[in-house]
Structure formats: C-alpha cells, structure tokens
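To: structure desk
From: M.T.
Subject: fold request, one chain
Message: Could you run this one when you get a chance? Sequence is below, nothing fancy, just the single chain.
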Amino acid sequence: MGFTIGGIRDLRSGTRRRVRSAEGTAVAEYTGLWGWDVAPGARAVRAGGRTECSCGDAACPSPGAHPLSFAREVPAGATLEKALAAWSETPGAAMLLPVGRSFDVLDVPADAGRGALVRLERMGLPLGPVAATPTGRALFFVAPGAAAALPDLRYRMGWDDADLDLRPLGRGDHVAAPPSDFGGHGPMRWLRPPTLETASRPPQARLLLGTLAYVCNRSAGGRGTTDAAAPGPPSY
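Reply: Done. Structure tokens follow.
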C-alpha cells in the first residue's frame, strides 16, 4: 500500500505542513489505506427547484452520480503524493468508488439496514463497511460477485417470491464515498467505517442476506409473502 496508518495519523494531526484539500486527503486514504480505486465524479447542484449535473448534459440521467468521462481514476495502492496530484486535476469532483472490483453492494432502506446491522452484530457475524446515503438507503459492502449471485441466493434461501426493497450493485456501478455529496442531496456517511481487514476482505453476501431479507420484509409489512410463509431470521 502507498502509506501506513501512522502516515494517515501524521497527516490528520497536522504534522505534515503542506496544504492539502480535505477531498485529496480522503482520496489518499481510500487508495493507500483501504486499497480501493477512486473515480472523480460529477457534482450536482440544485437550481430553480431542479437538480443540474456539472457534466453539462441538461438531460443527464444521474446528476452528480456518475464518473467524469474525461478524468482518470486514482488506482488502489497509489502513494499519497500520486493520489493528491491526480485529484488536483479535477478539483471539486465527487469521490466515487467503482463497484464490482474489491466489493459489491447490497442496497436496502436505511431503517431496515440499521435494524439488520444490530441483529448481525449481535450474532457476531463478519461485517464489512456500511454506508448511509442522504436519501435514506444503507449500503452493505460484500464480496465481489454478489450482484450476479443474488437471484440464486434468494431462491435457495426462500426469498425469491418476496417483494423485497433490496437490490444489488455490481460491476459497472459506482457509490459515492463519504463524505462526498450524493446527487445534490447531502453528504454520504459511514454507519460502519472500513477497517484494514473489512476493506480487503468484505463478507460473502450469503452470510448477510438472510437477515437483510428478513428485516426488509418485516419493515415492508411482508409485501409479497405472508408471515407464515416468510423464512424466519437465520440461525448460525
């Protein structure tokens, strides 16, 4: 990796005297400490009751939520200096994490996500980073491949007929990294921040899916399945 935990602490404590932007520092942490690629993303601004994207496309389908086509990604493992230099080429860009490389994401309603997080922690199951969007969603980072495997996992766990507000994000998707703004709605934040272990080895989706599906189903009032037919919370 590009630098050490001690280097991050020195940077945060102000022992390094160079002037660095907060965004550049965060990018350096994502690439150098957590080992994730970071893509410069468009910004969204609200004007006249509508959201406009900094990419300049008036009909942009994802204002402030897509990578800038002309900007280069900062690769995982980039040194502190390289990360800062690369980000200085796109000042003010949002920090986007490409999904499907180091991790996939299970996207659920925030209330259900918080409830599931409590259950999962109580059961002592391995957990990866969990982010919260300002639009009321919780993003559970899981091992790559989850998006492709989810339909089969739901079938095998008995959740294929339930109308769950649970969707996977995989290769080709991006998530805004805290503390970046999410589509003009406000900043992203961590419910469970990454660590050295969870950033490089997020859990398999099958370990979380039963609890996430159960809590999502309960939160939605059992949409698409009856309480009698719905699988109960998993036991491990």
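Reply (cont.): The radius of gyration is 19 Å. Let me know if you need anything else for the meeting.
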